[in-house]
């Protein structure tokens, strides 16, 4: 049944055209089912005969086939879509008239990539004519197979180049031979090997176009750029991650044996006016003017659609660095006398003392009453001198049962560990005094050790957020690198706006640092304190480790938050022909630990605080509460004095009025009172 249908169509086709077989079916069949093993096949041809028989044969081999007649009008972009059914091969009969146009379009749309397996039927065609130099997207990721024919066999060649835009020649490797008579396939090289990094990693000294960002005047030549980037030390206007990515680039350069001709830009991003023209490194890569960049780029959601990422490892971390000085204390803990105990403890202590005082007064009152009763009995019965002496002693005790204000003072003195004079003699008072002393020793020890511990521990951090920095007395400067200028110009974040208006707008004196500067110049200010410098922390750590002493290192604080901490992307042009190659190489470099080693070299750890503790002197704001207490005591005393004077005067006036009638009596009376 199948064969009868075939026969009918065959006769129909032979009526319309008398062309011989242009494409040999067995080659296409073997290519699809034995070499690339795809499941979908798109055939571009210009003879119905070819189309018909190949489609039938492929469908019989369980393939999903889409035939396209090249004389018809077709839209390549809608044929090669993302929604292709499976791994796809594209077969092109290059003897057809429309073939050069098709290949040109495929190159312009970057279809010679890992998504498709292309078969170029090139019998009687010359490969250098098929893929001329202006078809520039035939790179190391191309999966192109070219077929030509000798007298007795078809030859399948793997074709790629290291970059046609760089005038790199086409490289051909024989994949397989198919004898014309016996139709026997002899595989010479595994096609997937030929298409892999194994056969495509020798660039033979090809010069790629590189890009970098150095924010310095007059950096134009490749030699200048390489000299700056390969220097291991910090350079002005060069971010730490630039040098790191340059080292990664050097890894690739050694691996693939290429050289790079760099061009410089002053910044990463930005636009010209309100046009869409992109400036800086991103613009260069976006316009495909560079194959590789010695720089990372920030993650922005739109950038994933515009660039390919080949590697991510550098953690971009910037922070305000400053030296902590006690006047930066934001929480006011170091000198607060109430801090060691919580409010409940204080209230409970006061309540306890009041309770103890009342019990003591009660005891006093009871014993006084008991004594006076006892005295009466004794006076009635015994008149012995010895006992009288004893009695007078008892009288003293009774007198020492002084009034309640003195009792309160006594308790207060005991709690403040200032002793107690006179020492009470009776048992109940003594037991109370004993417990009060015990209580005060315990509490006092907790209190002092907590204060001492607080002063010794360097738990004081000072300002911890950008806003706290903005509100602190710190002077602020930034590293002289492009991204800050972009941030201040473009950010509408209220934190940044506040920072600009409070810290950056005021004019600066001659012995202050400018808004932008270099780390080396900032170090003396950092050492002195009262100054914060914002930069990439890994740039600052080595120089800080070198120039700061142990105490200064312990005082070093960092506050991030102005720019996000993020992992940077190493980007190339979207759908670059080098994406897969470089990505694979970087994966391997990470696996064998090269990336880790570079990171350890380049991302210096924060210098560690070596001294056990630092004592921060208590500042005037810390002890102010003690002075305030003293002052209020003095004021209360003065007030009490005034009150006493007033009350005495008032009493005297009343007395005077009472004895007004005789002046003589008044005089006597005053003397009397005195
Ligand atoms: C398609 O174009 C080729 C070359 O111009 C021509 O030989 C062939 O007849 C055309 N086929 C059809 C169906 O128009
Ligand atoms: C291949 O190119 C097409 C068209 O440019 C694109 O959609 C596809 O994502 C590319 N595939 C890969 C693996 O880059
Ligand atoms: C292909 O054409 C070029 C010139 O266009 C020529 O130099 C080369 O020898 C030709 N190769 C073959 C195999 O015919
Ligand atoms: C087939 O292509 C290869 C590679 O370009 C070339 O060396 C060879 O001469 C070609 N053979 C014929 C018969 O054109
Ligand atoms: C790199 O390429 C140059 C130029 O082709 C070549 O002489 C050199 O041997 C290659 N080096 C390596 C290590 O392959
Ligand atoms: C920005 O674009 C608008 C219209 O698109 C134009 O009127 C305006 O002059 C442009 N501004 C600048 C600075 O180019």
TrEMBL record:
A Pfam family recorded for this sequence: IR75A_N
Entry keyword set: Cell membrane, Glycoprotein, Membrane, Receptor, Signal, Transmembrane, Transmembrane helix
InterPro entries: Insect_Ionotropic_Sensory_Rcpt, IR75A_N
Membrane topology: Multi-pass membrane protein
Domain of life: Eukaryota
Residue ranges of domain Ionotropic receptor 75a N-terminal in the record: 34-213
UniProt subcellular location: Cell membrane
Membrane found in the keyword field: yes
Chief site of localization: membrane
Transmembrane segments: 345-366, 431-447, 626-648
Signal peptide coordinates: 1-22
PANTHER family: IONOTROPIC RECEPTOR 20A-RELATED, IONOTROPIC RECEPTOR 31A, ISOFORM C-RELATED
Name of protein: Glutamate receptor ionotropic, kainate 4 isoform X1
Species of origin: Drosophila arizonae
């Amino acid at each position: 049944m199948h064969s009868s249908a075939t026969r009918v169509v065959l006769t129909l086709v032979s009526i319309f055209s008398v062309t011989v077989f242009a494409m040999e079916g067995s080659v296409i069949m073997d290519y699809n089912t034995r070499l690339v093993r795809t499941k979908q096949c798109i055939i571009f041809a210009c003879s119905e005969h070819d189309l018909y028989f190949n489609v039938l044969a492929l469908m019989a081999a369980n393939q999903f086939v889409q035939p396209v007649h090249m004389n018809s009008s077709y839209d390549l972009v809608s044929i090669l879509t993302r929604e292709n059914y499976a791994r796809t091969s594209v077969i092109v009969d290059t003897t057809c008239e429309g073939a050069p146009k098709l290949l040109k379009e495929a190159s312009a749309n970057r279809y010679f990539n890992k998504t498709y397996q292309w078969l170029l039927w090139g019998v009687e065609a010359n490969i250098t004519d098929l893929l001329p130099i202006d078809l520039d997207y035939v790179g190391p990721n191309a999966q192109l197979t070219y077929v030509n024919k000798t007298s007795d066999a078809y030859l399948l060649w793997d074709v790629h180049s290291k970059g046609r835009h760089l005038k790199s020649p086409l490289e051909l490797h024989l994949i397989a031979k198919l004898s014309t008579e016996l139709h026997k396939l002899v595989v010479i090289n595994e096609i997937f090997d030929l298409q892999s990094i194994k056969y495509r990693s020798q660039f033979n000294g090809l010069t790629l176009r590189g890009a970098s960002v150095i924010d310095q005047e007059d950096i134009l030549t490749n030699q200048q750029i390489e000299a700056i980037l390969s220097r291991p030390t910090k350079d002005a206007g060069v971010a730490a991650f630039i040098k790191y990515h340059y080292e990664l680039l050097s890894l690739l350069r050694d691996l693939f044996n290429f050289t790079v001709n760099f061009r410089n830009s002053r910044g990463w991003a930005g636009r010209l006016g309100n046009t869409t023209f992109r400036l800086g490194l991103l613009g260069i890569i976006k316009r495909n003017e560079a194959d590789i960049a010695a720089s990372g780029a920030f993650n922005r959601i739109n950038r994933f659609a515009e660039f390919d990422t080949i590697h991510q490892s550098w953690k971009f971390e910037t922070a305000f660095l400053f030296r902590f000085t006690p006047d930066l204390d934001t929480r006011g803990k170091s000198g607060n006398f109430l801090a060691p105990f919580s409010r409940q403890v204080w209230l409970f202590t006061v309540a306890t003392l009041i309770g103890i005082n009342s019990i003591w007064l009660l005891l006093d009152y009871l014993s006084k009453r008991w004594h006076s009763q006892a005295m009466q009995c004794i006076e009635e019965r015994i008149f012995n001198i010895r006992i009288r002496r004893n009695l007078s002693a008892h009288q003293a005790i009774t007198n020492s049962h002084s009034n309640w204000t003195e009792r309160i003072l006594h308790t207060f003195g005991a709690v403040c560990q200032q002793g107690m004079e006179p020492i009470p003699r009776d048992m109940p008072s003594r037991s109370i005094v004993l417990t009060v002393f015990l209580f005060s020793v315990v509490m006092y020890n907790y209190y002092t050790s907590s204060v001492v511990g607080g002063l010794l521990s360097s738990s004081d951090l000072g300002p911890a957020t950008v806003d706290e920095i903005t509100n602190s007395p710190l002077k602020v400067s930034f590293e002289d690198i492009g991204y800050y200028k972009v941030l201040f110009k473009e950010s509408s974040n209220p934190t940044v706006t506040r920072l600009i208006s409070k810290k950056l707008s005021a004019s600066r004196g001659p012995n202050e640092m400018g808004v932008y500067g270099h780390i080396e110049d900032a170090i003396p200010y950092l050492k002195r304190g009262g100054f914060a410098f914002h930069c990439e922390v890994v740039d600052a750590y080595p120089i800080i480790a070198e120039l700061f002493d142990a105490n200064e290192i312990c005082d070093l604080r960092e506050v991030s938050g102005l720019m996000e901490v993020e992992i940077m992307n190493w980007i190339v042009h979207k759908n670059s022909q080098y994406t897969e190659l470089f990505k694979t190489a970087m994966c391997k470099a990470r696996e064998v630990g090269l990336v880790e080693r570079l990171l350890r070299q380049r991302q210096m750890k924060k210098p560690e605080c070596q001294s056990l503790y630092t004592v921060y002197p208590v500042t005037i704001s810390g002890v102010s509460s003690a002075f305030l207490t003293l002052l209020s005591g003095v004021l209360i005393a003065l007030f009490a004095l005034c009150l006493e004077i007033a009350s005495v005067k008032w009493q005297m006036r009343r007395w005077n009025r009472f004895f007004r009638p005789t002046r003589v009596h008044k005089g006597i009376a005053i003397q009397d009172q005195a």
